[in-house]
């Protein structure tokens, strides 16, 4: 390699077909399925709309 290539920084990690896998390691914390998060968000939006209709400020 030339000296210019070494000065640019560390080389990119090798990966399969150019794709990297980021979520291989287990992490501590609360695990919630995406369906629950989406349904809670939709439910809160519906409750907000209903309250806005029946309890105008």
Q: Could you walk me through the main structural features you see in this protein, from its secondary elements to its overall organization?
A:
The structure is a single chain. The relative contact order is 0.06. Helices cover 46% and strands 0% of the residues. The longest helix is centred in the C-terminal third of the chain and has 21 residues, at 34-54. The protein is elongated. It has a domain at 29-57. It is mostly helical. The mean pLDDT is 77. It contains two helices and no strands.
In short:
The chain is mainly alpha-helical and 57 residues long. The protein has two helices and no strands.
Poorly predicted residue ranges? none
- Helix coverage percent of residues? 40-55%
- SSE order, one letter for each helix or strand: HH
Beta-strand segment tally: 0
* Distance linking N and C termini: 70 Å
Approximately how much beta-strand content do the residues carry? under 5%
Biggest β-sheet description:
none
Radius of gyration using CA atoms only: 24 Å
List the helices and strands and how they pair.
Blueprint (H helix, E strand, L loop, with lengths): L2 H5 L26 H21 L3
